[in-house]
Amino acid sequence: MSKGRLNKQTVDDMADKIIRTMSSPTVQKRLLVFGIAKKIAFAAFFAFSLYASPAGAAEYSVDTKASKITFSGTHADNPFSGSFGEWTALVTFDPADLGASKIIATFNTASAKTGNSMYDGTLPQPDWFDVKNHPQATFTTTAITAKPDGSGYSAAGDLTIRGITKPVQFDFTLSDLAQSPVTAKGSFTLNRLDFDIGKKSDAPAEWVGRDITVTIDITATPKP
Amino acid sequence: MTDAAAQRYNTVAVLLHWIMAAAFFLMLASGLAMEELDLPKSLKFSMIQWHKSLGVLLLVAFFVRIGWRLTHKAPALPASIKGLEATLAKAGHIALYAFMLAVPLTGWAMVSSSVYGLPTIVFGLFEWPHIPKIAGNEFVNGIAKEAHEILAWVFIFVIGGHIAAVVKHAVIDRENLLPRMWFSCARCKKSKPE
Fold first, then answer.
1. CB nearest A125 (choices: B40, B117, B127)
2. Assembly ipTM
3. pLDDT for A154-211, tens place per residue?
4. Chain A nearest-CA residue for B44
5. How far is the CA of A94 from the CAs of A14, A26, A58, A147, A222, in angstroms?
6. pLDDT interval class at B188 (50, 70, 90)
7. Which positions in chain A touch B45 (Cβ < 8 Å)?
8. What CATH code would you report for A58-222?
9. Termini Cα distance of chain B
10. 3-state SS, residue A138
11. Which CATH architecture has domain B2-191?
12. B121–A121 CB contact, under 8 Å
């Protein structure tokens, strides 16, 4: 009655038909071709994976003790600076394969310290880093390119602070990759108001300057 | 001896009076300067922090002082001050105490409700807490700010009246009341039996 209903007769007929078709010389030939194609495709895919996967580019482990991520700006016309005490970074870098190179860094916002108890008491508050709601800030590269003049590299990426993501771009230089550890240095300036940092307290930047300079000084060793 | 001593405030009261007088002078002067003058930012910022620190100490000092005042007898008013003058003196002193409490309190409320959320670190030594539950409360901050300013201005006039009264007694009544609020009392010594 129903379309899906199968009786034994139908099943036997179908099996018979399949066996007969499969054993025909044309089908046998086709299957052989398909098998070879499959092997080639697999090999190509494997080769491509080797080429494109991060495993091809060198992975580095960052020595956060020797590295420093600092931020600096002005308050009441006086300079201030601080750094992140806790952060991690996954670095994959190969100058011959910049497409596979990547940096993913995560910062513990509560670990940002300036050494000035006045500022350190303010930074975690809702209007600044809002550490309760946003315990982490992240940076992920979207593209790493070599500078045409050979002076270093340029990293473009997404920076997320207080849950707000903005594109940033900065140049960095590398020490000799043949010698371990490798150091990377760079810096860029961001507008704190792009991330709503201190938006309620001081949007006109009367006290705290709009521009915050982030300085990156990373020491890393290639993973074995 | 008791008669002599009763003609002046005791040493702790005298110390508290003059130290707090000097401190309030600095507070009112710095408050006016911050409000009225276009100070360089860094100076203004340090001045605010310093004003907050001294304000905390004055608030604490108020309680020490009122505690001392309530547990120690103040010298009686000189016999020359009576009637309306005595009532005014009493009211004036109560007003002075009220402002000594209200001005620092409104300042504390101002800092605690400020959108800046800056901690109060007393002379860079220890952190004084904010009044809870009002952090960033613009409504409370508006009232506290206004009250702090108005009260400080009225306080200046009350202090002015306090000083004017001393001058009035010295010039018009030819009676120097200052020894009552000093460490020794020349007049009292004279009456002391040798």
1. B117
2. 0.73
3. 999 999 999 999 999 999 999 998 898 999 999 999 999 999 999 999 999 999 999 9
4. A76
5. 56, 49, 6, 15, 11
6. low
7. 75-76, 78, 207
8. 2.40.128.110
9. 11
10. strand
11. Up-down Bundle (1.20)
12. yes
